[in-house]
Give the backbone structure.
Amino acid sequence: MINRTIDEKLVEQLKEKMAEGLLPQWVITDPDIYELELEKIFSKKWQFLGHETELKENGDFVTRWMVNDPVLMVKNKKGEIKAYLNSCSHRGTQLCTADRGKKKTFTCPYHGWSYNLDGDLVGIVAGNKIYGEEMVKDDWGLRPIPRVESYRGMIFGCLDSEAETLEDYLGDMKWYFDMMLGRSDNGMEVIGLPQRWVAKANWKSTQENFSADPYHVQTTHRSTVEMGISPEDPLYASYGHQIVMNDGHGLNVITSKTGRSKSAFQSMPQSMWPMFQRNLSEKQADIMERVTVFVGGVYPNLSFVSPIHGTEGEMHNYLNFRVWRPLGPDKVEVWCWFMIDKDAPESYKKDAYRGYLGSFGPTGTLEQDDTETWARIVEVSKASMMKNKELNYNNVSNYLMGFSHVKPDKDFPGPGIAYPTTYVDALSRRMHEHWLDLITKDTVKEVNK
Amino acid sequence: MSFSVSSQVSLEIKDQITNFLYQESFFLDNRKYKEWLELLSDDLNYVMPMRETKEGVNVDNISEDSAFFDETKASLRTRVNRLYTKSAWVENPSTRQRHFVSNVFIELGDKTDEYKVRSYFLYKRSRGSMVETEEMFGQRDDVVRLIEGEWKLVSRRILPDQTVMSTMNMSMLL
């Protein structure tokens, strides 16, 4: 195994800068840093695999990726969700290439080894005696993803068998998931397949852009202001709270200048409000009545948005989750899921889906402009002036918004550290400090000693 | 199974419909989006389902429950209007794009003055000073109708051949 190290001096410099709210830009697309991220973050932390409604019946499966690890996720005969490395245990060939489907056994096209829904090796072509003596099939099942756990229907996997539980990892975020995913009796459902496309971007930038940066809304998405859809007030996306949580998680609870939303419960049908109130605590229901947009993320690479979107005069709410799957320092495959309350009327679901297509995902008019800024960051991050590790050029990104004067609001009803505006870099700073802690853990090479 | 190459559509009609498709591409490639909107019937149905990888032979791999576009003329007008603002950054500076339309096959439609039109598309795009170019390709199943002497697009179903799109966004109209 190759052990990667970082110079102690460099780590100190990075930490000093980060403590001042500054992140040297070269770290965004540096290839060595990227390798460290794969090893120290993506091999250790929980990553989103899918939602339980994507596996409705026993035998249903989907294929997913945890960065470079192919995942085959199935519902077995007992109705349990299992996830395996999607690779034949014989010669390592990718076992299943379909996006989704229903099966009892998976057969490798190379030599014909086949596996059941429990990952057991159940068939060897020409019998296993050809191996000399009878092979112990139990030794050659599919390798399970070390940890698979779910919360409110959201299934996550983790490559580190020693990792803390998913619930501990989500921590304070559970309270907010309870609101977004648990407001209806029957929870949420995924409609269709996730949209997938490859963007020119670094995963840290997309996670930050989506989860922690409502400040970009007034400029990146200015076209909606020009069209009269969004307000002229440049502070319009700032009203509400930014909440910083454990492990680099966080979200923005965006309301409006009055602190209230024009439409209670994010324009969900009024017939559903009593159900929401029944399923939510008083504090949660209060937030749900006032919120316009929830937008946030679970570190390292899951982001979500629950907006109110107007489609031809009608307002709709939906929940969009997305995984930023790194394909390299400057490439991200985006996986974008649409979710809606199972209990919502069918016509509402359809309209909300059309509203989603108009705003988010690759064809969404908001997200299109985001892709442009993601690309513009990676296109310049390899510059020599950015790469200068002594920082003579001071090529740092600025995370100073609210650094000195925005103090937490102790009266905010939810868990986490809540700042009384979303135009603040508190969550971005926390994410990057956390990133630095993770990639430097056990990798610092002592120099000059 | 026999296949008749006679489609019962006159050369004159075929010529008009093919020209219609070429003119449409020209409008899209030259930022004449408002002119493009004029080619759409008021009851337009414009969809782009996703493609999925499925196991098996001769299985339908169009994913009917998943989409990139599901538009009406009104929602397309909103998209078009946005492209005339100063701050639709994805198209400002504007991209250079070409819609190559080929393999046009025209049949009689279900109603008078309606025709079913199948075509292939190859979409290419260049942005900024990037040397890499982007592309997308697939099939379009259209219905066109002659309304008061003018050809209009009544419905379009765009079938991409990729399951994971390789363009950094899908700001283009197809």
Summary: Chain B touches chain A through 37 residues (CB under 8 Å). The longest helix of chain B spans residues 11-29. The two ends of chain B are 33 Å apart (CA to CA).
